[in-house]
């Protein structure tokens, strides 16, 4: 234990000042080098700062050396943050895009019509019947089927619509043959995204 008073030796060239808890040894003369000097009890101080020797309770020399040898933490953290920043931004962009597509309105049908340029076909004539589907411009798929009044129908057909494509034209080619007169009817059955049925009338005549 260090005393709580200070002691001055008769030799005026050396002065020892001790304070309670920790001590400061002020040296003057030839013995006050950067690496010389011990405590009054012969214990080497923890470190030397010029002519001041500091010792007493606190961090010892081994701890100071370990702390001084530890790698800097802040640069390592910065490097780790930079390494993970780009993948994190890419992931956030993908999630935002998926959420936007999910929250955006889906394909909607606003109107469906069927028409033909030849409502009165003649002998052995092929008629182009056109179904026009007007949408809200969202991408998606139309499914539909053509049904004819002669008892035949097509299989389920599919039409892909791109973004901002607000109109789709669906075609049915119907060929008439033979003599006589026939009242024909062509129906467009829209199956998805909504169910709707529209039709057009034709009159075939071949004397």
TrEMBL record:
Domain of life (superkingdom): Bacteria
Identification of the protein by name: Uncharacterized protein
Organism whose genome encodes this protein: Streptomyces triticiradicis
